[in-house]
Amino acid sequence: AAGGESSAAGGGDEPSFRSGAYGREEYTNSIVASRDTNISPREVYDSIESRYVRYPLEKLREEEEEAEGVALGRRRRPPPRALDVGSGAGVSTQVLWDIGYRSIDALDWSGSAWERFVVDDPDGRCPPGVTFFELDDERYLDVWKSEGREKFDVIVFNFAVNEDKARLFAKYLLRPENGRLLAPVNAQRDYWLKQTYKAFDASGAVLWSATDVGAWSVQFQPDVTQDTCQGIWCSPYNGFKKKR
Question: Tens digit of pLDDT for each residue in 103-152?
């Protein structure tokens, strides 16, 4: 769906989200994600499964247990929401779904990997709770504001960002009570060769950081929206057109 959004692609019978790329990721000590598959090293998905991403779900379960039987017709809280930024082939989306997030906005400036592994792959499934936006994060933010979309319990970035962008998304888009954001943040501003994984709360405070995950030294594709982005992942080599 060029320039827009799609949901329930790939079949409505299966209640779970599935990407045909799931299981193809491998442990590695360097970045091996290719422009053809958009599958990150396995350590990336291990990090998404961390306690920081699970924390909002655990708090929600605690709240539901406490409220059980207290108010019988009480309005139920919306399902836990996740924002998957740079979703690529949908592997990170499946990880979030399997953890327990049932309302997911997945976005990527290029929809080719999503089309290949979620829409066209016979193993791909996309239930109505998952919506894909073929947009970069800056354009998505415009849509989120204009449509008045709900805030998120968790946000995951799958590409390198400067810390000010991570804090911006945490403060604007996270639910204030228990929201968490996980992002690979540049060790130095606009230095795209080394990142530190960081977990933020909704105030933008850093709760955790790691420069290495297992045997993998954290390094991601650069943020295509930044003018300092250089190399094969960036304009003009990849066809990306920056928002004007």
Answer: 999 999 999 999 999 999 999 999 999 999 999 999 999 999 999 999 99
pLDDT at 8 over 60: no
Task: Look at residue 203 and give its three-state secondary structure.
Answer: coil
Residues pairing with 130 in the sheet: 104
Amino acid at the residue 234: C
Phi and psi based region of residue 57 (left: phi greater than 0; alpha: psi -120 to 50; beta: remaining): alpha
Quickly list H helices, 49-182. 51-67, 91-99, 112-114, 137-147, 163-173
- The pLDDT assigned to 99 comes to 95
H or E element: which one contains 199?
strand 195-201
Amino acid at 230: Q
Three-state SS string over 149-183 comes to CCCECEEEECCCECHHHHHHHHHHHECCCCCEEEE
Residues 69, 9: Cα–Cα separation, whole Å: 38
Which one, of 113, 74, 76, 78, lies nearest residue 93 by Cα?
A: 113
